[in-house]
Amino acid sequence: MARLDQVITNIVDIFLEYADDEGKKRQLNKEELKRVLEQEIQSPELKEKINAGDIEEAMEMLDKNHDGEVNFREFCRCVCDLAKCYYHKKTGKGCKKGKGKEQEGEQED
Description:
disordered C terminus, Recoverin, domain 1, EF-hand-dom_pair, 109 residues, EF_hand_dom, calcium, calcium ion binding, mainly alpha
């Protein structure tokens, strides 16, 4: 399987694996999100951007529709933001913790 194919299928598979544990099907509640962050993100650079230790802050940042759970679209935004942080680290541009409303107007990569 090509690398990008593998990345895409992994993102979907990880989401579905954790989203079907408890709560609404195909959405991540706080506990499910915490498990994803604890088990699937091991890089210290990425853990400092979004971590399971501050699950309230992570939920607030990710749950754009404020329904108390993270749907697949919101999860994809999180993965995309983490990928951008890794890109910025690799290119020396730096990355800010938690993309909030004050950063939405910044130029996209």
